[in-house]
Amino acid sequence: MTITLQDVQIILGLPVDGLPITGRVDQDYDALCLTQLGFPFPENNRTGGRIQIRQLSRWFPNLPDNANDVEVQRYARAYILQLLGGTLFADKSNNLVHITYLQFLEDFEAAGQYSWGSATLARLYRQLCLAADIDGAEIAGPVILLQLWAWDRLSFLAPIMGNVLRDPVLENEELFPPPPFGHRWKHALETTRESMHVLTKYREMIDMQTPDEVIWEPYPEAVIMDLPAYCSSGRAIWRTRAPMIFFCVVEMYHPDRVMRQFGLRQMIPPLQSTNIQLHRIDLRGKTDKDWSAEHSAYVCMWNERASNIATDESLEESMDFYNPYMLWYRRITRRFMSPRGAIAEALAHGITSIHQLTLGDDVSIARIRDVAASTLTAVHADYRMHNMPSSFQASHHSSHADTPSRHDTPLYTPSVSLNEFGTPHTPSVPPNMTFEAMEAFPFDTAPTSSRHFHASPIMMNLSGSTSTRDGGMRDNDDIQPEDAQNPADVGHTDISLALNRNVRVVKRTRGGTGSHYLGSD
């Protein structure tokens, strides 16, 4: 999942289909301030073309009743500057805004032709990348977008909505357009009764969420149609595959990696490697560069956005645990943020393995199966018992082939034979199949790597390959044969590492939809 252009436009109401926000940062700040705001740029300003937001508030308090058109426009620009510097493009100073944005606000009609939404999302993607670094202690940018996006899609993170009272009627209210979708959270008056502000609690809840706790499509067509037109004017490019641009920042946008958010089938996406040098570019010492020329190739790609739209078949039903995409995803991603989240997965993993091996009419086996099934249900992991791939079914006839599973689950049915002592013997694994999931869970083992660092409890694959049990390596980009054979075993190594508090990883991931090839970072 990630924040998309659809989310930006529906939640915040920002235009996404338009010209990129780029060009030269360095401007004649005195001239810009005088012509656009009516005030000179403060003398002895050493903030690199930025002005204090409080200064704008002092220059532009309440709009006078007898204000002429020029004054109204200046107040409007000051208000927009405060919105940009305080919310959408906020930096870590928390009180400064760059004057260069005035170059896009001279003509309000022209200002509406820019893609403010894609610039906002590019800013958020880059800030997520920087904040995920082990040395990152803060985050800037449009964090309100991140928060509202999470509330809309992960209901266990959202506050409880209070009594929605009608806002007081404002003078000339009919002149204002209806608000965007994010405005509905204005009346979120109370949090849940649990201590939700604790970071570890958030991490555990995210780690242990179940598939049915994700709201993949919080904006059904009925909701979109009920919103003002400016919240859907750019829907033609919500699924474009193009770079998003904000001066020096270029962030790749790949909705084909999160197709379920658009109600479409999710396939294993092609490899997308983040350009390391491009991602390292910032404005330090480069404010005099013309970024529209510097990034002209990416500007051209953005200009062709309407011709590169990701699409697929409609998603008719939820993706099950053993879908090829899920097998691939569990192998290449970081799945846990907390040891407790990994423990829950380890428990479900082990009991699933037991459940897969306990079919037959033997009373003790049936009781073990029932205990495994009830335990999986208790830990909200019963979905793992359903829609098993055919590789779990025996390739030979069984004397118990007609014995149904009490949970209607297509599992392996073992045959019964006599061992050397003449007593019945039930093989523990299907023939011609290595079922590694039956092994004891390796809580005390973890792969060794010189890149581990005491920082994050999450395992990350640092290259484009995965080590196998025989010491070899395999490519991470394709489903491997053993994935289909051992779906419960895929990705269990990252659980053991997450459980090991003495092993940490220093590598950072990329925000947004940019890259899953973690070794490219």
From TrEMBL:
Any Pfam family matching the protein: PMD
Domain of life per record: Eukaryota
GO biological process, one term: meristem maintenance
Residue segments, region Disordered: 390-429, 463-495
Transmembrane portions of the chain: none
Chain ranges of the Aminotransferase-like plant mobile domain: 1-330
Bias (Basic and acidic residues): 399-409
Protein name as catalogued: Aminotransferase-like plant mobile domain-containing protein
Organism: Stephania yunnanensis
Organismal lineage: Eukaryota, Viridiplantae, Streptophyta, Embryophyta, Tracheophyta
